[in-house]
Amino acid sequence: MDTSPTRLLIHGASGRMGQALLRLAAEQSACTVVAAVTRRAPAQRVVDGVPHFAATELGGVPAFDAAVDFSLPEGFDAVLALCVDRGCPLVSGTTGIDAAQQDALATAATRIPLVWASNFSLGVAVLAELVERAAAALPGWEVDIVESHHVHKKDAPSGTALTLGHAAGGAGQAVRYASLRAGDIVGEHMVQFTGLGERIELTHRATHRDIFARGALHVARSLVGRPPGAYRVRDLLD
Ligand code: NAD
């Protein structure tokens, strides 16, 4: 059995999620970061032993076993193309990708194993299942999703809100969304089912973004060696 650490490329390494990924990966002997990629040229070429690259240098990064992408939609196409080109798994949490990018993901999944998820927390995977069950059991109830995030978040509604809306809408309900941007909120999602004279609220609160980074690193390691396909976080979290 191969016990060598999984070689990771971190795409979006200078961001809030990228920094969490680098810190947590450094604590794990099961993986090693061989390339950290940021939009602009890095101030230092090597930081804590990790080689850094600008997005324009992506084609020249060393061999890696899996890429973990938490960047922005404008950086997404390049890392997806690199993974297909190198035949390497991709884990992406980048939200706000458009329909063409989603189509490109589906096409790539015929060539490489990949996970794109709007949320890598186990709690949200369970919340989505609860929402699915509640929506199926409560036809005709109104469904509202309220999501809150920090002021730097650009896309709205959040990718997680859309995923939860998809889970609720499967039973035919129309879903309304409301987005709040305030302070340093890591991420909160409340799904409200309203019937005549009664209401159910299902809420998830993320208090630390390490939950997403830890989940993404776990998923990246689990994807190595799997056949091509689009996997879900809940398929790989055990
Ligand atoms: P951020 O703005 O702090 O960081 C963005 C990073 O992307 C930076 O390192 C930047 O250099 C890089 N980048 C931007 N454009 C690029 C390009 N063209 N090429 C290469 N790199 C580029 O953002 P953040 O808070 O770290 O979030 C990053 C993404 O992850 C967002 O889409 C956010 O919504 C998403 N997110 C997902 C989850 C999840 O669990 N799926 C959790 C938190 C955040």
Automatic annotation (TrEMBL):
PROSITE patterns: DAPB. It catalyses: (S)-2,3,4,5-tetrahydrodipicolinate + NADP(+) + H2O = (2S,4S)-4-hydroxy-2,3,4,5-tetrahydrodipicolinate + NADPH + H(+); (S)-2,3,4,5-tetrahydrodipicolinate + NAD(+) + H2O = (2S,4S)-4-hydroxy-2,3,4,5-tetrahydrodipicolinate + NADH + H(+). NADP(+) binds at residue 40. Its EC number is 1.17.1.8. (S)-2,3,4,5-tetrahydrodipicolinate binds at residues 150, 159-160. NAD(+) binds at residues 12-17, 93-95, 117-120. Pathway: Amino-acid biosynthesis; L-lysine biosynthesis via DAP pathway; (S)-tetrahydrodipicolinate from L-aspartate: step 4/4. Residues 123-237 form the Dihydrodipicolinate reductase C-terminal domain. It is an enzyme of class 1 (oxidoreductase). Coiled coil: none annotated. It is found in: Cytoplasm. Residues 7-120 form the Dihydrodipicolinate reductase N-terminal domain. Keywords: Amino-acid biosynthesis, Cytoplasm, Diaminopimelate biosynthesis, Lysine biosynthesis, NAD, NADP, Oxidoreductase. The active site is at residues 149, 153. GO terms for molecular function: 4-hydroxy-tetrahydrodipicolinate reductase. The keyword Repeat does not apply. Homotetramer. Belongs to the DapB family. Catalyzes the conversion of 4-hydroxy-tetrahydrodipicolinate (HTPA) to tetrahydrodipicolinate. This is 4-hydroxy-tetrahydrodipicolinate reductase. It comes from Pseudoxanthomonas mexicana.
